[in-house]
Every structure is written in structure tokens, then in C-alpha cells.
Amino acid sequence: MSRRTIPGVIVLLAILAAASPVRGGSLRRDAVVAVVETARPAVVNISALSLVQVPRRSLFDQLFPELWGVGPSVREAQSLGSGVLISADGLVVTNEHVVEGASEIRVTLVDGRELEAEVLGSDVENDLALLRLKLGRNARPLPHLELRRRDDLMVGETVVAIGNPFGLESTVTKGVISALNRTVSSRRSGRTYADFIQTDASINPGNSGGALVDLDGGLVGINTAIIESARGIGFAIPASRARRVVDDLLRFGHVRPLWLGAVIRPIAARGRDLLGEQGGHGLLVRRVLPGSPAAAAGLERGDLIVRVGDRRSADLADLRTVLASNAPGDAVRLEVLDDAGRHPVTVTPRTPPDDLGQRILDSWLGLAAIDGPRGVVVRRVRPGSPAAETGLEAGDRILAVHGRRVASVAEINEVMVADPDAPSIFLVVGRGRWAYNLTFPLDE
After folding, report:
1. CB within 8 A of 331, min separation 6: which ones?
2. Under 8 Å CB-to-CB from 310, ≥6 apart: which residues?
């Protein structure tokens, strides 16, 4: 062997030594194994029991129920799912559909302990529920994963899904983030969900509510088996959206929508010159409520929103996704096209004011209402307003708003706060012995 080859041999030996097990270590203990060992204790198994009515089996049973008892029979139904511990004192996040209608919820920890849980709140729109475990006194802190905003997710990065598919506890699957901001429709619920994380890590029935974590052990999202027949495609609710939902459930018991104070209508331009890379789609501002976040940001009727946040588009799904993930007071960047050209606008949505219903009725419909001895009474109608053109008069009674009966002005506010930027207002108005259905479009 010549002297010239000695340095190369030394380098090769160094590489082999670095790649060999050292002090009992092993190449098998990679980043995925480390993440699973850390995260798996925070993922729990959820068993939800509910009572369901079973219809009578035959026409004879239906025609002569007195022979077999009155009403349909009742049986127990059990659903299985997963959940993620997000605090040391027993807060658990799971999917809403896992605990929907449950009369009893039991949670099994990785160490085998079985505990009862109560629902602190749930949100159907986001398919999320928040549970609290019933821990005894002096219970030791539980392993958990921190639920925090995540704005650094990358398509292609490795993720690990942990859950209990088909009742198989603590199942681990590995994949990558296949896509972000997916919009998915569910046959089971009939709803469309936006802003999902797509992954090729296997997520099957029973995985719903489990954890999707990255290689740093951070909680990326809450898994959901929204397409049960999918193969090689799984979805998770982003941690940012789950954090917003949990914060509202803890404070209010329900999710409070963020309020812009603007009525916005999606449009499609005939050519691409107007909207450019947005592909002919935008959001047209039709109304702006005085004193609202939209008014404070300088938005005006006729403005065209062509970009929402970092997205390359501006449609209602994009806007709703941003509002669902942001907390009150978080700034939202928009790109607006108006007579002066394209320019950025920053709007800061907040929770709706308690008197929002009164503001909308007064500003946009032109009527004022007060509590009367027989419910809500129209006190005043502004001449030339939409209410006046419809024929409303002082003394008329407002019986319902958006399909919900109201008995006070406070209830009107409550109904409108639930959908603060609705594109229309539907009222049922009483006059004498008659009731009239009136719809006021706001996006025309």
C-alpha cells in the first residue's frame, strides 16, 4: 500500500466508525422512533356510548304498537375514535363526530387507565370537540402535546399519524404532507370543510381525533377519517384552526365567528386582465357597515379583493379559512383593486359587538326595533329605506330572524351575531292576524 492511499483509508475508516453503533446505539432508533416514543402517550382511545331509536321492523308493528309497547325501541350504540391530550390536567381534543350524541364517554390512556370524560364544548363547522377527563385528587400530570399555531408547514415534510384505527390502539403510520389548504366534502355530514392538511399517512376510521406530528414532535393537526373509502389519502385539521376553536370553547363554550362588517360577493371576471393570476376570481365588496373593521381598514363599496393573505386567490373559502384560523385582533392582509389600482389593505377582524343586530337593522334596512309587551316591535322606519320600500311600518312586530323565533331585541342580536356577515336578512313580520316572510338581499 502506498503512502498516498493512507489518508483515503483513514477517511473511509472514520466514516464507517461514525455509521456504526456506538455505546449500544443503533441506526434503527431514528427520528420517527423518537417522535413516536414522545408523542404516543398523549394520544388516547375514546369510546362514546349513545342511545339510538330503532324503528319498528314491520308494518304490523307500526299499525299495532299497543301490542308491543308504545314507540320505537331503544338500543345502545358505540363509536370508537381517538383524541389528543393537550394539557397536563386532562384536556382532550377530538373530532366532533366521535362524541356526537354521546351519553357516556370513556377515555383509555396508553398506560391502560380508563377515565370518564365530559364535553366542554364542540363545533360542528370545524368538526372539533373539547373534552375534560375526570381525574381524581392528587392526580399526576398527564403527558400531552402543545396545541399552538403552526405557520411553517411544508409540503413534502415527513409526518407521523398516531391513533386507534378500527380499535387497534396506538397505531402508528408514517407519510409526508401531500398538500395544504385542501377543501374536502364529507358524505357522512353533508358538509364541506376547508383548509385541511392532506397526507399519505394512513388515516382510517378510528383514527379520527388522533395526532399528526412532525419529526420535531410538534402537533401538526388533528386527524380525521373524512373520506372513509380513501386509500393513501388522509386529512387533518390544522393545529392553527384547532387552537382557535379550543380557545373559544374554553372561554365561551362555543366558537364565536370573527366579524369584518362587510357583505362580500364572489365574482368571476370574463377576462384575465382584470384579476390576473387569480384566474378570473375575486371578492366584490357590496356593503360596509360604519364602525366595523372593514370600515376602519378603508374598504369601500365596489372594491375588489383579489388576494387573501398568502394565498394566490380570493374566494369565499380562502377568506373563511383565514377567519376560522385567526384569533380576534390578528391582522389579515388583503390585496384590493379599486379606482387607484392594486394596493394592500390590512383588516383586523374582531368578535361581533353585542348590539350587531340593531346596527344592521338600522344602517342597512332602515328600521329601529324595541321590546314591547308582545315581543319585538318596529318603532321607526326611515323613509326611502329598504324597510320602507317593502312596506314595513311602525307598530309591526318582528316574529323571527333567519328562521329563529325572537321575543326580544337581545335575541335578534344573538341570531345575527352567529352569522355576522350574512349576505341577506330574512325576517318574519306580524301585522294584526297576519305574518309575512320578507327577505332583504344585501349583496346586490
Report:
1. 346, 347, 348
2. 333
> 172 or 192: which carries more pLDDT confidence?
172
pLDDT reading at 329 higher than 80? yes
- Per DSSP bridges, beta strands 375-381 and 219-224 are unpaired
Of 127, 303, 315, 318, the catalytic one is: 127
Question: Is residue 208 annotated as a catalytic residue, yes or no?
Answer: yes
pLDDT of residue 199: 92
Amino acid at site 87:
S
Mean of per-residue pLDDT scores for the chain: 84
In the chain, the domains with their CATH numbers are: 158-252 (2.40.10.10), 262-347 (2.30.42.10), 356-441 (2.30.42.10)
Say what the pTM is. Answer: 0.74
Q: What is the pLDDT of residues 53-75, one digit of tens each?
A: 556 555 555 555 555 555 556 56
Residue 127 known to be catalytic: yes
Grid coordinates representing 274 are 382584470
Of 47, 79, 82, 97, catalytic = 97
Q: Write out the chain in H/E/C secondary structure.
A: CCHHHHHHHHHHHHHHHHHCCCCCCCCCCCHHHHHHHHHHHHEEEEEEEEEEEECCCCHHHHHCHHHCCCCCEEEEEEEEEEEEECCCCCEEEECHHHHCCCCEEEEECCCCCEEEEEEEEEECCCCEEEEEECCCCCCCCCCCCCCCCCCCCCCCCEEEEEECHHHCCCEEEEEEEEEEEEEEECCCCCCEEEEEEEECCCCCCCCCCCEEEECCCCEEEEEECCCCCCCCCEEEEEHHHHHHHHHHHHHHCCCCCCECCEEEEEEECCCCCCCHHHCCEEEEEEEECCCCHHHHCCCCCCCEEEEECCCCCCCHHHHHHHHHHCCCCCCEEEEEEECCEEEEEEECCECCCCCHHHHHHHHHHCEEEEEECCEEEEEEECCCCHHHHHCCCCCCEEEEECCEECCCHHHHHHHHHHCCCCCEEEEEEEECCEEEEEEEECCC
Beta bridge partners of 60: none
What does the pLDDT look like over 216-268, one tens digit per residue? 999 999 998 766 666 678 899 999 889 989 998 998 888 888 899 999 998 87
Q: Report the pLDDT value the prediction gives residue 108, as an integer from 0 to 100.
A: 92
Catalytically annotated residue among 82, 208, 240, 292: 208
Average pLDDT over residues 325-345: 88
What pLDDT is recorded for position 227?
Answer: 66
Taking only the tens place, the pLDDT of each residue in 391-429 is 999 999 999 999 999 999 999 999 999 889 999 999 999
